[in-house]
What we know:
This protein is α+β, with helices and mostly antiparallel strands. It is built from six helices and three strands. The radius of gyration is 15 Å and the shape is globular.
Amino acid sequence: MGDAKWEVFIPDTPGVYVxxxxxxxIYVGMAGRNGAGSLRRRLRDHASGQVVNMxxxxxxxxxxxxxPDRPRTPRExxxxxxxxxxxxxxxxxxxxxxxxxxxxxEDELRQRLSPYFNASAxxxxxxxxxxxHTP
Length: 135
């Protein structure tokens, strides 16, 4: 993402995306479940930093709640999360025909790349057989 706005460069189609923090894959997701949704809208939601968004929650808790300088309000948390995402994260996308195809590719990429925020240790689910992941 850097200083650019993700949504400007992202197609308005179903597909899969990979979010990087530096060179590390931290999240793999998809857009187009149930025949609705698009990569552009999904990534705009992620980049907003709104803490109701799961990616923003992961980023907030893993990167921004350490130390005495924690955000004091939801608005401050969103602004700081958004600034962190814009400064430290980038995204790559693959536009696909529909949500069914996107789900298959998403599952394959999650297995191959083991993104930190999709890992069972972070999500609290046993998606990958209990493997430990580090950022």
